[in-house]
Design a protein that fits this description.
CATH architecture of the largest domain: Beta Complex
Radius of gyration: 51 Å
Strand content: over 45%
Shape: flat
Oligomer: single chain
Largest sheet: 7 strands, mixed
C-alpha cells in the first residue's frame, strides 16, 4: 500500500516536472521569437555545381541553377548571402544514360550545421541529366601560321615541344576532332622566338570543337626567323629641285610616304644599292603655294623591282612667301568728314608706314599705294589727338600688314569765323 502511494506521488512529481519544462520552453520560445521572429527568405538562381562522373560526361541538363528557400530567425536569415549557399548534383556514381539526380544544399560559411537546418525548400528538388561515355583520343598537334613575318624576313617551320595532345570528353564530341591546332602570328617578329600557344580542337571544317578537354592545353613553339637576302628595305628621299622656286618664296616643309620601300632582286645587285634612293625630280617652277604630288622612285637597275609593284610615293610640299618689312616715309596725311569752311591743322603733316608681308608685294609698293586719313566726322572745333586710318591698294596686303609712326596725330579744327579772323590777321600782318 505504501509503495503504491510512493509510486503515485513520484509519478505525479514527474508529470509536474514535465509540464513545468514544457511551460518553461514555451515561455522561452515566445520570448525569443518575440524579440527575433521567424521569417523565410528565398534565393534565386543559385548555380548548380556538378560532381563529375569518372566514366561518363554530361552533355545535357535541363537546369543549371536552383531556387533555395531558407527559414529561421530574422537575425540569422537576413545576414545570409547567396554566396553562402552551395547546390550540388552528384554524378560521381552514374554511368552513361539519362538520370534524375536529386539536388543537395550545403553551406560553406560561416556555420554549416546551423545553416543546413535553415533550408526549407529547393526548387527543383531534382533535375534530369544526360550522360555520354567518356572517351580519350590522341591527336597530332599542327601549328598554323596565320600571319607571316614582315616583308624582308622569312621563317622556318615552327617546332612545338610536344607532337601529340590528348582530347577527352563526350564520345560524340571527341569523334568530331580531327586535329589539335595552335595559331602563330609572326607579323611583328624579326628575330628567332619561342612562344607558348594555346591549343584548340578542330573539326573537319576547320571550326573549333568546344566541350572537350585538351592535355596539354598549351604548347611551346620555337621558330627561326631570318632576313631574306633577295629583299632589301631602302630609304626613300624626294628629289626636290629647290633651284626652281620662284623669287620671293621659300620651301617651309615637306613630308612623304612611304619613307622606305622593299626592293627585290638578286643579292649581288641589292648589295650595290646605296642606303637611300631618290625619286624622279620634282620641279617647283610656278609654285607659289603648297601642293601634293605622286612621283616614282628611280631604281638603278631594270632587273630590280619594288615589292607590291607600286614604286610611287606621295610627296606633300609646303611653300610660303618670304616675309620682309619695309619702311615708307613721307606719306601725306589727309582728312575726311568735315564741312566746308573749317580750317584743319594736322601735326605732323606726314607719317611713316612700316609694311610687313610677302617680299613680292612689299618691294613693289610706292607712296601712292598707301593712304593715311583722319576721320573728323561729328567733331566740333577744338584740338584732338586722333589715330588715323590706313588703306592699302596692293593685292594680298591690308591694314593689318601696316603700322604707323607716329600712331597718333595732333589735329586742330577751327570754325569758319575763326578761320576768317585768322586770315584777316594774316593779311594785316602782310600789309605792315
Amino acid at each position: 500500500m505504501i509503495r503504491r502511494l510512493l509510486r503515485a506521488e513520484m509519478t505525479g512529481n514527474l508529470l509536474w516536472l514535465a509540464v513545468s519544462a514544457l511551460l518553461a520552453t514555451g515561455v522561452w520560445y515566445i520570448a525569443v521569437t518575440s524579440a527575433d521572429p521567424i521569417r523565410q527568405r528565398r534565393f534565386y538562381g543559385i548555380p548548380i555545381q556538378f560532381v563529375p562522373s569518372s566514366t561518363a560526361v554530361m552533355i545535357n541538363s535541363l537546369a543549371r541553377s536552383a531556387d533555395v528557400t531558407i527559414q529561421g530567425s530574422q537575425t540569422i536569415v537576413s545576414s545570409r548571402l547567396a554566396s553562402d549557399i552551395v547546390v550540388r548534383a552528384d554524378l560521381s556514381r552514374l554511368g552513361p544514360g539519362t538520370h534524375s539526380v536529386p539536388l543537395a544544399v550545403e553551406v560553406v560559411s560561416p556555420n554549416p550545421d546551423g545553416f543546413r537546418r535553415l533550408v526549407s525548400r529547393v526548387e527543383p528538388a531534382q533535375i534530369s541529366i544526360e550522360l555520354e561515355p567518356r572517351e580519350s583520343r590522341d591527336n597530332r598537334i599542327a601549328i598554323e601560321l596565320v600571319k607571316a613575318p614582315p616583308i624582308g624576313f622569312r621563317n622556318d617551320e615552327p617546332q612545338p615541344d610536344v607532337d601529340v595532345a590528348q582530347v577527352s570528353g563526350a564520345a560524340s564530341l571527341v569523334s568530331q576532332v580531327v586535329a589539335v591546332r595552335g595559331q602563330l602570328d609572326l607579323s611583328a617578329s624579326r628575330n628567332p622566338l619561342e612562344v607558348d600557344l594555346r591549343l584548340h580542337a578542330i573539326d573537319a571544317d576547320g571550326n573549333r570543337v568546344t566541350g572537350v578537354e585538351l592535355q596539354p592545353q598549351t604548347a611551346s613553339v620555337a621558330v627561326n626567323i631570318s632576313r631574306r637576302d633577295d629583299i632589301r628595305q631602302i630609304a626613300i628621299r624626294p628629289n626636290v629641285l629647290l633651284s626652281t622656286l620662284p623669287d620671293g618664296f621659300t620651301l617651309k616643309n615637306q613630308s612623304y610616304e612611304p619613307e622606305s620601300l622593299f626592293v627585290s632582286g638578286a643579292p649581288d645587285q641589292l648589295e650595290k644599292i646605296s642606303d637611300t634612293l631618290l625619286t624622279a625630280p620634282i620641279s617647283l617652277e610656278g609654285r607659289d603655294e603648297g601642293f601634293v604630288t605622286s612621283v616614282p622612285v628611280q631604281l638603278p637597275d631594270d632587273e630590280l623591282f619594288v615589292m607590291g609593284g607600286d614604286s610611287n610615293i606621295t610627296v606633300s610640299i609646303e611653300i610660303i612667301p618670304i616675309v620682309v618689312s619695309r619702311q615708307i616715309d613721307s606719306i601725306e596725311v589727309g582728312h575726311i568728314g568735315l564741312g566746308d569752311g573749317f580750317e584743319v591743322s594736322i601735326v605732323p603733316k606726314t607719317a611713316s608706314a612700316i609694311v610687313t608681308g610677302p617680299v613680292v608685294y612689299v618691294e613693289a609698293l610706292s607712296l601712292e599705294d598707301i593712304q593715311i586719313v583722319v576721320d573728323l566726322d561729328g567733331l566740333t572745333p577744338g584740338v584732338y589727338d586722333l589715330t588715323p586710318s590706313i588703306s592699302i591698294t596692293a593685292a594680298d596686303l591690308s591694314e593689318a600688314n601696316v603700322s604707323l609712326s607716329p600712331a597718333e596725330l595732333n589735329v586742330e579744327i577751327r570754325s569758319p569765323e575763326a578761320a576768317a579772323d585768322s586770315a584777316s590777321a594774316a593779311g594785316i600782318r602782310a600789309e605792315n
